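Quick check before the chapter quiz. The format below is the same one you will see on the exam, so make sure you can read both the input and the output lines.
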Amino acid sequence: MPQEKASKKLRKMSFRLGLSRVQEVFVIALMIVLVLAVTYSDIEFTYKIGIAALVFAIIFLTSMAGQAMKTEEEKKRL
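Here is the expected output.
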């Protein structure tokens, strides 16, 4: 039963955004790219704020789309 414990542990590590594992990996990668771009780039502060707002919007819309797909699947099951 070690596999069951591992799968439960993976579920606990989830962001609980209603996304699949692949989508969560892309969101994490996007966050890492944001941090690297904001901290190590030599661009103006206003552009950094714009990049952060764009990344936030993408993550927010991705989570909203994931939740919508999840509720549609639940409706189809009923």
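If your answer matched, good. The longest helix spans residues 45-77.
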